[in-house]
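We include this case.
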Amino acid sequence: MFFLFGMNSFNRRSVTGPARCQFCGREALQEVVEHGTRVSVFFIPVWTFGRSYHVTCTACGRQSSASRREAAALARR
């Protein structure tokens, strides 16, 4: 008997509505990218770990890290 298991990294991208950039100060679209790693058994994702969130301003292109709450707040806009 054997088990098929593996690890897969992913990037989930979502563009939110306009928000004020902390670097350039303009109202511009903010792009939120979630990065994480999944463990799967028999090709079914079982556990996700190592999640991090990054916010990129579409006006100036600067990127900053964000907490899960900050990313969720931007996604609700």
Q: What stands out?
A: The radius of gyration is 16 Å.
